[in-house]
Design a protein that fits this description.
This protein has eleven helices and eleven strands. It has 293 residues and is of the alpha/beta class. The protein has a single domain, classed as Divalent-metal-dependent TIM barrel enzymes (TIM Barrel, Alpha-Beta Barrel), CATH 3.20.20. The protein has a nine-stranded parallel beta sheet with strand order 2-1-11-8-7-6-5-4-3. A two-stranded antiparallel sheet has the order 9-10. Strand 5, helix 5 and strand 6 form a beta-alpha-beta unit. Helix 5 packs across helix 6.
Length: 293
């Protein structure tokens, strides 16, 4: 049976900038009645074990757990010293994930910087991720690489945004401590077929981000693919209630069920508040009942 987690997309900036306390979000999340909370690395005041254990206890006292930690390493910087520090930071987040009781820690490729060619960038990413895997195995954490669009704090889009680059990286890494975090919305925005991507990585999928995308009137998906060189996330590409946007969730969940998927599905939603998050949780429960009886 799949389990449902929630990620507070609507309050990322508030929490990371200290305008909203992490525990305020944790306490409010009880309204959603989901099984877990996905954490973002920048939510934490520190990575001290005592503090992380406190966060874990706060969540577990409310009847939930922290299965996933969302992290955004940047492994495509041309400077080797920079990449080494990114590896160290990813390892720290693996350790933090274990301290929180989590099973999965997200990893990415890095930014699509001008001048970084495909072959060299792929080599850097594969090498960096493989350097993290011994610690992932040691701590019992699975690194899950997301087919990502763009971290909100990055200038450039994801290096492995397109499916062919993403698949080349994933297929070069052979480890039980490595898998895929599947995000159908990101595939859609990249110009790829979300179902085709799912079928290509199905046996590697360990977690999933459930979100939906809506384009502001007058905006095309092609314009989103071409957007680059600006900080943050495109303002005319919106999140909303899961199941009401551009994704074929019946097609997605029917395939997950046939393949015996038993992982976590995290709602990357709530841009418009808790009521929409509740509707997204309700939708995912209906999918679970329909396909995972």
């Amino acid at each position: 049976m799949i389990r449902i987690a929630a990620f507070p997309k609507c309050w990322i900036e508030e929490i990371t900038e200290g305008r909203m306390g992490l525990y305020e979000w944790v306490d409010r999340s009880v309204e959603l009645e989901c099984e877990g909370l996905e954490m973002y690395a920048k939510f934490f005041e520190s990575l001290a074990p005592a503090y992380l254990r406190e966060v874990r206890k706060r969540v577990e006292d409310l009847g939930m757990c922290i299965p996933m930690v969302c992290y955004s390493p940047d492994f495509t910087h041309p400077d080797q010293g920079f990449r080494k520090k990114e590896i160290e930071s990813q390892v720290e987040m693996i350790q933090a994930t274990a301290e929180l009781g989590g099973q999965y820690c997200r990893t990415l490729s890095g930014q699509m910087r001008p001048g970084v060619d495909r072959s060299r960038g792929i080599d850097w990413v594969v090498s960096c991720i493989e350097s993290c895997l011994p610690k992932a195995e040691q701590y019992g954490v699975c690194l899950v690489m997301e087919n990502h669009f763009k971290d909100g704090y990055w200038k450039y889009k994801e290096f492995a945004q397109k499916m062919d680059v993403f698949l080349e990286i994933v297929n070069r890494i052979d480890s039980e401590s490595f898998g895929v975090q599947y995000d159908p919305s990101n595939a859609l925005v990249a110009g790829d077929d979300p179902i085709e991507l799912l079928e290509a990585v199905f046996d590697r999928v360990r977690t999933m981000h459930a979100s939906d995308r809506y384009l502001l009137p007058g905006t095309t998906v092609e314009q989103m693919r071409e957007a680059d060189g600006t900080l943050g996330y495109p303002k005319n590409l919106l999140h909303g209630v899961v199941g009401r946007g551009l994704n074929d969730y019946d097609g997605i969940f029917s395939r997950l069920a046939r393949g015996g998927f038993q992982g976590w599905v995290s709602i990357e939603d709530g841009v418009n508040g808790m009521e929409e998050m509740k509707e997204s949780v309700s939708f995912l429960r209906s999918m679970r009942e329909k396909y995972f009886k």
